[in-house]
């Protein structure tokens, strides 16, 4: 069945303590090429039928009204998940 991916991230002005903790740990495990980490959330919505523009619009509405907190988060992606081979 087709799936839609919704990615939600904290707004840039919101502190991200989990992201900061991850960023601090990366050099300790030898990964030094990263300057900042922001941690977000991902939702997968399974669709009964075809993913149309209307279904994507409904998924964006769900993301903006239910899956995210618009005070502190932005919906950064709503797209169909490409089928894995």
TrEMBL record:
The cellular location(s) given in this protein's UniProt record come to: Cytoplasm
Molecular functions (GO terms)? ATP binding; phosphoribosylformylglycinamidine synthase activity
Concerning PANTHER family, the annotation shows:
PHOSPHORIBOSYLFORMYLGLYCINAMIDINE SYNTHASE SUBUNIT PURS
Pathway involvement? Purine metabolism; IMP biosynthesis via de novo pathway; 5-amino-1-(5-phospho-D-ribosyl)imidazole from N(2)-formyl-N(1)-(5-phospho-D-ribosyl)glycinamide: step 1/2
- Say which family it is in: Belongs to the PurS family.
Q: Give the protein name, as stated in the record.
A: Phosphoribosylformylglycinamidine synthase subunit PurS
Instruction: Please give the InterPro entries that the UniProt record associates with this protein.
Output: PurS, PurS-like_sf
Would you tell me the Gene Ontology cellular component terms? cytoplasm
Give yes or no: UniProt keyword Disulfide bond.
Answer: no
Keywords linked to the UniProt accession: ATP-binding, Cytoplasm, Ligase, Nucleotide-binding, Purine biosynthesis
């Amino acid at each position: 069945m087709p799936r839609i991916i919704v990615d939600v991230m904290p707004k840039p002005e919101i502190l991200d303590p989990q992201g900061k903790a991850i960023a601090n740990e990366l050099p300790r495990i030898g990964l030094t090429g990263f300057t900042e980490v922001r941690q977000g959330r991902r939702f997968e919505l399974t669709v009964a039928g075809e993913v149309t523009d209307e279904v994507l619009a409904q998924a964006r509405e769900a993301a903006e009204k239910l899956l995210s907190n618009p005070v502190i988060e932005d919906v950064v992606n709503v797209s169909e998940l490409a089928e894995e081979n």
